[in-house]
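Homework-ish question, so no full write-ups if that breaks the rules, but can someone show me the predicted structure for this set?
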Amino acid sequence: MKVLLQQLATVRSAGAAARNAQSNTATAARTATLPRDARDTLFLLGVIGWVVLLQIGHIPWWCTALTAAVLGWRSVLTLRGRPLPGWAWRVGLLALTLGATWLTHRTLLGRDAGVTLIVVLLALKTLELRARRDAFVVFFLGFFTLLTHFFYSQSLLTAAGILIALLGLLTALVNAHMPVGRPPLLQAARTAATMTALGAPIMLVLFLLFPRMAPLWGLPNDGMTGRSGLSAQMRVGQVAQLALDDSVALRVRFDGAPPAQRDLYFRGPVLSDFDGVEWRPLRSAFPASMALQAELVVSGPGLRYEVTMEPHNRPWLFLLEAAVTAPEVPRTEAYMTPDLQWLTRRPMSELVRYRAESFTDFRHGPLRPTVALQDHLELPPGFNPRTLMLAQQLRREIGAGPAYGLALVETVLERLRTGGYTYTLQPGVYGQHTADEFWFDRREGFCEHIASSFVILMRAMDIPARIVTGYQGGELNSVDGYWTVRQQDAHAWAEVWLQGRGWVRVDPTSAVAPGRTGTLERLRAPEGLFTGAMRTLSPDMAARVRAVWEAVNNRWNQWVLNYSQGKQLDLLKRLGFSSPSWTDLATVLMAVLALVSLMGAGWTLWERRQHDPWLRLLDRARQRLSALGVVDAQQMTPRTLARQVQQRFGDTDASRRLSDWLIRLEAQRYSRDSPLTLATLRREYQQLVWPRPGHP
Amino acid sequence: MSALGQRLQRWFHSRVPRTDTLALTQRNVYILPTRAGAMLALTLLVLLVASINYQLNLGYLLTFLLAGATVVGMHVCHGNLRGIVLHLSPPAAVHAGQAVVLDVQLTSERKRARYGLGLGVIGVDAAHTPLAWTDVPAQSSARVQVSWPAPQRGLHAIPPIQAQTLFPLGTFRVWTVWRPAAQVLVYPAPEAAPPALPAGSSEPGSAGSARQQDSGEFDGVRAYRRGDPQKTVVWKKAAQAFAAGRDDLVSRDALSSQRQQLWLDHAQCGHSALEARLSRLTAWVLMAERLGLDYGLRLPGRELPPSQGATHQARCLEALALA
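A: Not a homework solution, just the prediction itself:
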């Protein structure tokens, strides 16, 4: 048994041959003449290199460097046929790794530290490929390293990369079990690919039917660190980064026609506390009994839709303004805050899909002034003096009429429209008085600056106002009809409280740049060379490619990443279970397994009959004849058998027909143009009258 | 392996019918996971738990794809051995202490090649001899030589042979146990440094002589003894011997008008123990044959009249093996 895999292990023995091969020939020529051990080792190192390459974005730089160095070193040792380093090297490198991991992650446990360690261990283990067991450890560590990649990305591209790696590992494993000669790697690759292809149906059945369950122990709290998305605070410049990010945030499919672009506000965190620099969610000093209530009233037809939300590791759900009923979210429940934001009980650390119903015609907040509105008038002292003066001036101009609030809002919006304000993604760094700078000096900015300055001005005029963040707009994918909302659609708008109307949405950005919200015209982030060239050459083509790619990605999300227990149970429902449960799932899985086993047994029977049909027919005749006492019938040709029959059973009619049949059986096989078919012969065989045994 | 396990295995092997040609089917091909298979199962379990705990749907996919490939690998492994026809050519006799070489032909009618088939003898103490590995090309056959250290002299049944494969993943071991019907004759081991052949005795016109003199000319020869004149050396034989790497000299028996009869007699070979005697006689038989002498063999209850040639030698050696 040890013979196997020793080609991976006994590189020492290949030394002499490797040194011969290592003469002055070019590298390419050398790989063709490499001894088998060396070739296999290099191939395995290459596969491991690919596995590590996939991880490169997630592991610390020193881990990448160390792994590359170890794999490179091992390759050189293999090419030169040198012995492997002693244990001191491995122990030393391991200690170094543990130390560096501790320094980087401040722990040796947890997900990120674990991934770092596993990648290095995989590389270090290649320095110890001695016995068969070592090789298997490398394979199995490799499989596990593949899985860790999914902690960071589960995209289609990732899946493709992982599939290649899996095929590579399987190829190396298959190759290691071809101990004879120097079989081409392609042969092993073909076997591995066939096995994987045949294993795919098994994968599909298990994937569909394996009961999805909650995490077996505490949810890993480091599930989604470092993902981009909206944040709970808003500092100037924060959303600018998001605007450059065209990764997908939500995908929405409306049951009917999508609403108008200007109604596409997906509500996220609401920010009311301002300290002069940063906006934060409200932390009211008022007791709960006095706090503002949602008081949401909706009217008009509801808009039903389905949202697929990319993980953002926050307990936020993005719903179109405004929803009354809680959407159903897998494995958790949703509730609405008084400021109309929808939250879940736990962070959304994986792709989720939920259905919701929203009403674009709605009203919320108290209709009469309440004490709690005071929270939305607070301004930090010592900031934005010129804005405060502007507020005084505007109030004086408008006066205190019955609808002075609305009039003030209109006035300010008019100022934004006509005051030379521009929408830009590069407003530069603002100083301490952000609102002052926006209103008077720079007169440019993006939604954040505009909304912040607007709300400050409103509050300065004693109009309760707050900032709402979320996503605005989106883009219809013409390929699959999904509405795609990207991170660059992240937006900040304002809500002002008006007597008799409650909270009213005001989007000051649309006053500055009507295109931003009306027709969804976007300022484009600076493009890469390739996308730029592509767009210049063929703008349509670029858009189409992107649409197709995103449709494919969406399918992937819908069918693979979002396959949950709910969908499993739906599947069972479609299979005819009225109220499917966990146990039904297990039953169906068992039934499928039993069915497959039966099919396997059937296939075995079928395969047994798959020998040459002519031989099978002859075999039947032979068996019959040996039962009749013809000695050595198994070894005889049909012609000999015919002679035997004649001799043994005499010149009766039955034996003549039998021997005649045997002769024709031979003719069917060997004569050049025999009109007989095997089916005819088989039919005749059935009609043969067999001589009685013991009656020669 | 425990004593009980060994007995179980022996009992199991004794149930296998003896045949020189064995077609491997579902019935006589066995499969069990290997240690590596257990490791893979553990890996799959860890992958599954990680997928559940981190709620990774792609992790499920990877786990199940690997599991699927392993299950397919199990079938591929079984199919790799199943359907082969093993055939053993009658093994050549050897001397005790040498290795019996079993020449096994593996025939495959399948349209795909088979890889990594290992054959080896299962020893008496269930210890496995090293396996001889081969591939079998599609719809073709391959030969593999399995060696087996010959036991004591005598006629022996060939021990059970195992044919196994780990292809493609090494996670399963598929094997069969085959008891060939052929028997192998093991001659006694020739004595390492035997004394010179005994002197031939002249037996005038003996009726028992195998070969009658049919002409006046007769070449009586014997091994060269010190002091033989050069002209009596049979140079032709010497040249043959040199060519074969030996340095035996043969002398023409002087004035052999009578026939020289060389009798190798177990009673007169200088040893008392039976095996030692047989060893010496074996060495002498080989030596006499090499020298081209006529020799006869006398064993208790058996006498082979003098003659020479491969057949005669084989008969003598067989008699010695079975004595």
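Now go work out the reasoning yourself. Hint: The first strand of chain A starts at residue 234 and ends at 235.
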